[in-house]
Amino acid sequence: MKKLLHEVNLKIFIPSCLVLIALIAILFFNLDGADETITKIYDFCTEKFGWLYLVACIVSFGFGIYLSSSRFGKVKLGEKDEKPQFSNISWIAMLFTAGVGTSIVILGFLEPIYYVSSPPFLIEPMSETAYEYAHMYGQFHWGFSAWAFYSPAIIAVAYMMYVRKNASIRLSSACSIMLKKHADGFLGCLIDIVVVFGIVASIATSLGIGTPVLADIIMKVFSIPKAHAFTVRLAVLVIWILIFGTSVYLGLDKGIQRLSNINIVMAFVFMLILVFTGPTVDILKMEINSAGLYVQEFFRMSTYTQPFGSGEFTKNWTVFYWGWWIAFMPMMGIFVGKISRGRTIRSVMWGQLIWGSLGCCFSFMVFGGYSLYLQKSGIVDLVSILNSQGQSAAVIAILETLPMAKIMMLFLCAVCFVYLATTIDSCAYVLAGVTTKKLLPASDPARWNRLFWAVLFCVLSIALMLIGGIEAVKILAVVVGLPLTFVLFLLMVSVKKILEKDYPSV
C-alpha cells in the first residue's frame, strides 16, 4: 500500500475523495433539502455574478488574441528544435473529443428546439427569426467563446512542463509565479481540490445527460420494458467502464490517442450520413445564414445580460454554459497542455480555438439543422415531445425519421459510447496527474490512479442515478465555475508575467 501511495499527493487526493463522498452522502440523506440549498446557491451565483462569467469569457478571448499575436506567439513549448509529439490529426482528435463528449450529439439535436420555443432578444417564439437564431445560438455557446476559456490553462501548463521543466501539471504550480510560497501550501492545495471537484462535477454532468438517453435508445431498439430502465442504464455505464478502463490502462499514446482517432472517424461518418440522407440543401442554407448571423451578433450575444428583463435566457443558457466551460477549463488546460509538446504558443492557441470551434459548429450545423427541419416542416413536433416526454423521447423521434432507423440508433449509441469514453479517459488521466506528486514530461500517472478516477466517475454516476441527484451536480458544476473564474484570471496574469520574465525580448 505504501508503495502505491508513494507517488500520490495525499494533501490533494484524500480531501478530494472525502468531498465527493460527503456530496453523495448529503444528497442521499437529505436530497430535497440539498437540492433546495444548491439551487439557492446557483441562483445567487448566476443572478449576482452572471455578469462576471460574461466578463471572464470576453477577457479570455481577448487574452488569446493578444498572446498569439504578440512576440510570445512563436515561443515553442519544448526545445527549440523539438517536433510535435503527436501528428496534427491525432492532436486535433484528442483535444476535440476530450472537450465535447456525448453532450455535443444530444444537445446538438435538442438545444435548437429549446431556442426556437424560447428565443433570446424578446424574439417571437416559433417565428422565422426564432428559427434563424435557434440554429445559430448553439454554435455560439459551443464555439469560439467556449474554447477561448481553455487557452490560459493550456499555455500555463504546457509552458511550465516543457519549457520550465516543472515536474507537475497542477494549476497551482502553473500559478506559482503569482502564488510564490503559497503554491505548495494551503492556497495551492485549495485550488487543486476545487479543480478536482470541478472536473468530477463536469464529467458527472456529461454522464447524466448521456446515460439516460442512450439507455432509452437501446430499450427502444430491443423493445425492453421500461421496468428495466435502471438495469439498462447500469449496463451502459458498465460498457463505458470496459471501454475507457482499457484505454486509460494503456495510457496516452496507445489508449487515448487511438480511441480519439476512432471517435472522430465514427462521428464524421454519422454526420455525413445525416447530411446526405436528410435535407442537404436546407442544412447548408441554414449554416450559411447562421455564419453571417454569428458574426453580426457576436458582441451582442457576448454581452447580453438582459438588465431590464427577467434575465432567464442568459441565466439558463449563456451563464450556465460559461460556468460549465470554466469548471471544465482545468481539465482541458492540463490535458491539451500535456499533448502539445513541440508546438508553438500561437499554433496551440489558434489550433485548439479554430478546430475545436469548427468541430462543434459543424456538429450543430448537422444535428441542429436536421431537428429544426423536422420541426419547421411539420414532420415531427419536437417542441411538444420535448416538453411533455423529455429529451430521450425527442432524440428517438428524430432518429425514427432516418432510413434504417434502428441501425442508425445503434450507430449513434456507438458514436456516443466512444465520444464519452474519450472524454472520461482524458479526465481520469488529468485527475491522476493532478493528484501525483511529480510527473515528468515523458511519463504518465500511475495506472492504478488513472483507473481509480475512471471507476469513481461511474460509481458516482450510479449513486446519483439511484438517489436522483444528477440535476444537483449539474448545477453544482456551474457553481464551482465561480471560484475557478478567479483562477482563470490568475492564470492569465501568471502566463503574461512568466513570459515577460523569461523573454524580455524575442
Description of the structure:
There is one protein chain. This protein has one domain: Amino acid/polyamine transporter I (Up-down Bundle), CATH 1.20.1740. The chain contains 20 helices and no strands. It has 506 residues and is an all-alpha fold. The longest helix is centred in the middle third of the chain and has 49 residues. The model has no long low-confidence stretch (mean pLDDT 85).
Secondary-structure element order, as H and E? HHHHHHHHHHHHHHHHHHHH
Percent of residues in helices: over 70%
Low-confidence stretches: none
Tally the beta strands. Answer: 0
Would you tell me which CATH topology applies? Amino acid/polyamine transporter I
Number of structural domains:
1
Largest sheet: none
Structural class: mainly alpha
**How many angstroms does the end-to-end distance come to?**
49 Å
Radius of gyration: 22 Å
**Count of DSSP H/I helices:** 20
Provide the β-strand percentage band.
under 5%
- Chain oligomer state: single chain
Classified by CATH, the class is Mainly Alpha
> Mean of the pLDDT scores?
85
CATH architectural grouping: Up-down Bundle
3D shape: globular
Compact summary:
The protein has 506 residues and is mainly α.
Keywords:
20 helices, Amino acid/polyamine transporter I, 506 residues, mainly alpha, globular, single chain
Break the fold down into its secondary structure elements and pairings.
Blueprint: H1 2-5, H2 10-29, H3 31-69, H4 88-100, H5 103-117, H6 128-141, H7 144-148, H8 151-162, H9 171-174, H10 176-179, H11 186-221, H12 229-277, H13 280-302, H14 312-338, H15 345-377, H16 382-389, H17 391-399, H18 405-434, H19 447-467, H20 470-502
Helix pairs in contact: 2-3, 2-11, 2-19, 3-14, 3-15, 3-20, 4-12, 4-14, 4-15, 4-18, 5-6, 5-15, 6-13, 6-15, 8-14, 8-20, 11-12, 11-14, 11-17, 11-18, 11-19, 11-20, 12-15, 12-18, 12-19, 13-15, 14-18, 14-20, 16-17, 18-19
